[in-house]
Specification:
It is built from 7 helices and 2 strands; from the N terminus they run βαβαααααα. The protein is mainly alpha-helical and 175 residues long. Strands 1-2 form a two-stranded antiparallel sheet.
Length: 175
């Protein structure tokens, strides 16, 4: 038999509040971590495959989207420069996306928005500096730098929120 503890209208909270009677706090925490880990594993496997395609098949892939022109070689070279800077960080983006999803599912929208806005703020504040220092490559490098900040906030918030969720008293009046 299962019991449900609906503590709000947020669908994510409902998902995390359904479980078997008994030591529900332990079960919820463990199930949340297992789900998070599985999502992260799937996301990283997919990202690794995309990274491999983008790093080793970049010229062929870019050629698909270009018509024959005198500038085609320069365009492909610029595209390769972008992909070689940005693509290796897709694993970091996987961690951010999964952490963001977990935060939203736990109803921590403020923390999710803080992580997302920090990413944008880093791009705005440091984009000009990166551009002045490294030219067009600096514009591309600011993306991974901003992802790093956003991921650190999102993943850190996930860990803190999980700890608080694990220690949260549940309304087990139906037991």
């Amino acid at each position: 038999l299962f019991e449900a503890h609906a503590q709000g209208t947020d669908r994510g909270k409902m998902v995390f509040q359904i479980g078997a009677p008994g030591n529900t706090q332990f079960r919820y925490s463990r199930r949340m971590h297992q789900g998070y880990g599985i999502c992260l594993l799937i996301s990283c496997i997919f990202s690794a495959a995309v990274i491999a395609v983008l790093m080793f098949g970049d010229a062929a892939l870019l050629s698909v989207f270009l018509e024959d022109s005198p500038d085609k070689a320069k365009i492909i070279e610029a595209g390769q420069g972008f992909l070689r800077i940005v693509a290796p960080f897709y694993l970091l983006v996987s961690l951010k996306i999964v952490s963001d999803g977990a935060l939203r599912g736990m109803g921590a929208m403020t923390l999710f928005m803080l992580a997302t806005l920090s990413d944008v703020v880093v791009r705005i504040l440091f984009g000009r500096f990166f551009s002045d220092q490294w030219g067009i490559s600096g514009v591309w490098m600011i993306w991974p730098a901003a992802w790093l900040v956003g991921t650190a906030i999102s993943f850190g918030a996930y860990l803190v929120k999980c700890r608080k969720f694990k220690n949260m008293p549940l309304n087990n009046s139906a037991e």
